[in-house]
Amino acid sequence: MRLNQQNLLIRPGPREPLPIGLRDRTFENFQVTAMNRKSYNDCLTFARRFPKIPQGRGILLMGPSGTGKTHLACAIVNALKDTHAVWFANVPMLLERMRTSNVSVDELLSADLLVLDDIGSERETAWTVERLLLIVDTRLSNLKPTVFTTNYEIKDFEARVGMRLASRIVGHNLHVFLMGPDWRLSRR
Ligand SMILES: Nc1ncnc2c1ncn2[C@@H]1O[C@H](COP(=O)(O)OP(=O)(O)O)[C@@H](O)[C@H]1O
Ligand SMILES: [Mg+2]
């Protein structure tokens, strides 16, 4: 079974993995500043070298709200979606769907690239941690890269999702930090 409400979870390819409100987020329209240049370059390099990524090494994008984490994750999706099986899921929403209906995660497990957006923002229970561990562990075992975004710093992230999950995510992925003002506020 596939869930497709608002395009937020799972869509069959080929492929528009992003919900409509996020489709326009690209590297081209990401404004590069002194504060985000390194993060931008790390993400662009990841997308360009994607077929040669060693050991399924993904990215953990960290930083406060509104600093461009989801934008950069979507830019990676947009750069790769025509050539690879790419899936995007907002974690709180994914877990809610998994809790309330019988969702298959097979496509998330086997995708060439999976984005798990906003991990740590879910209401954490033993069950949510187990579900996320299953996804993260399976992808690690198959050397499939995952891009994570989170509003939490490493210490807080560990406290939120627990050490078992955090150590896998923190230990296996490139850390990319976003800083600076909240773009949502600066547009008003
Ligand atoms: N460097 C940037 N250039 C242009 N727009 C940006 C940039 N960073 C963030 N934005 C925009 O600001 C809004 C919030 O960014 P988002 O990526 O959702 O933040 P986060 O996921 O870090 O909370 C989005 O509309 C996004 O497109
Ligand atoms: Mg975000």
Explain this structure to me?
This protein has a domain at 58-180: P-loop containing nucleotide triphosphate hydrolases (Rossmann fold), CATH 3.40.50.300. The protein contains 8 helices and 5 strands. It has helices at 37-48, 69-80, 91-100, 106-110, 126-141, 154-161, 163-172, 183-186; strands at 59-62, 86-90, 113-117, 146-150, 174-177. A 5-stranded parallel beta sheet has the order 2-3-4-1-5, sandwiched between helices. α5 links the parallel β3 and β4 (146-150). α1 (37-48) packs parallel to α2 (69-80), α5 packs parallel to α7 and α6 packs across α7 (163-172). The termini are far apart. The structure holds adenosine-5'-diphosphate and magnesium ion. The site of magnesium ion has 5 residues, from α2.
Jot down its keywords.
188 residues; alpha/beta; Rossmann fold; five-stranded parallel sheet; 5 strands; 41% helix; globular; binds adenosine-5'-diphosphate; binds magnesium ion
Write the layout of secondary structure elements.
Layout: H1 37-48, E1 59-62, H2 69-80, E2 86-90, H3 91-100, H4 106-110, E3 113-117, H5 126-141, E4 146-150, H6 154-161, H7 163-172, E5 174-177, H8 183-186
Parallel strand pairs: 1-4, 1-5, 2-3, 3-4
Bound molecules: adenosine-5'-diphosphate and magnesium ion (MG).
Radius of gyration: 15 Å
CATH topology annotation of the domain at 58-180: Rossmann fold
Query: How much β-strand is present in the residues?
Result: 5-15%
Give the CA-CA distance, first to last residue: 41 Å
Q: What form results from the Cα inertia axes?
A: globular
Quaternary arrangement of the chains shown? single chain
- The CATH class of the domain at 58-180 is identified as Alpha Beta
Number of helices: 8
Task: State the helical fraction.
Answer: 40-55%
- In sequence order, what are the helices and strands, one letter per element? HEHEHHEHEHHEH
* Corresponding CATH architecture of the domain at 58-180: 3-Layer(aba) Sandwich
Biggest pleated sheet: 5 strands, parallel
Output the strand order for the largest sheet: 2-3-4-1-5
